[in-house]
Amino acid sequence: MVLEQTWRWFGPEDRVTLRDAREAGATGIVNALHEIPVGEVWPIETIRKRQEMVRFSGMEWTVVESLGVTERIKMRAPGWQKDMENFIQSIRHLAKCGIRTIAYNWMPLFSWTRTHLHESAPGGGYTTRFDAVAFAAFDLYMLKRTGADKEWGEDLSREAFRYCKALSLEQADELRATILDGLPGGHKKLTLEETAEMLRSYEGITADELRSSLGEFLRTVAPVAEECGVRLCIHPDDPPRPLLGLPRIVSTAEDLRWILEQYAGDANSLTFCTGALGVRADNKLREMVTEFAPRIGFLHLRSTERESRANSDIESFFEAPHLEGDADLISIIIEVVREKHRRNSCGDSRSLPYRADHGQELLNDRERGAAPGYPAVGRLRGLAELRGAFMMAERWITEG
């Protein structure tokens, strides 16, 4: 098994270029055809055109992140069968083009979510942040979702009210836009009215029903992926908690066990994101990596730092430097290298792609105006740190 250094690139409009990625040390590119609406088939000719663009830079497009799952599939709403057929056809087209790793997520309505995109980081630079009080203020006093006050609780609702009242008009607009406009690779841009309408369409859907839809999806799609030699790698919820009254079912070790039981083959694998899973203090990341290592098909290596509040079990957190924060990536990397040796002993020569996920804005990153969470210098630093950690772990394990 080869540990492949990859870099997420958002296509020709990305202000962090393919040349930047190559100079950072990446050999594989993580990309998606974001211009194609979720639910439509990815044409072979479009996939190949993007591959040629990446190859011209001296790298390969090796990971898709993400092949979108429609809300209709998650809810099993009218039209979901056609969306599933299109998802399967896109898998076949990607496999025909030689792309064997596909990441996706099962987060209802909102994908990865933050409340602040350019917070001052403790060590300098800027970082993304999720503030539970700020999100509660959005939910309670901007979206005005029915029942939100009961879910957030009296103490946090009061704190959110004070927070909201203290915002200037400009700050309130910025918070609203940060949550509704969607982050790179996440949900589409929404208005408050569209969000409320989508929430009504999800009304009454329980965690068990969302699991039932995911189980049916995997039992239908994974055999096709297996036939094509493709690994489907589900990404954890980010943050790993229910939001806006919607259940989230990819947040804990128990969730991951259940998902892997739905289809036993490698086609049903994990995007193991240490940052998303690490937000929860009850997720013991090293033990989880050890348990799930044989079914990890893609690694997102990053670290978050929790800012727990006494009156809430929903953590605030910010994006920490890769080798700092709560994730303890050194211990995780050691377990990944052990898994590498195990796979090699079994004759498994497939690559395991990893990327320095997210990054703080450092030096001239803010001037460049890269996609939030995906700066050039911050990720270069992260990938360099991870590369060094992998080299040391390899030497420590092989030489004792």
From TrEMBL:
Cofactors that this protein relies on: Fe(2+); Mn(2+)
Pfam families reported for this sequence: UxuA
Keyword Lyase tagged: yes
Keywords annotated in UniProt: Iron, Lyase, Manganese
Any single biological process term in GO: D-glucuronate catabolic process
Physiological role: Catalyzes the dehydration of D-mannonate.
Protein name per UniProt: Mannonate dehydratase
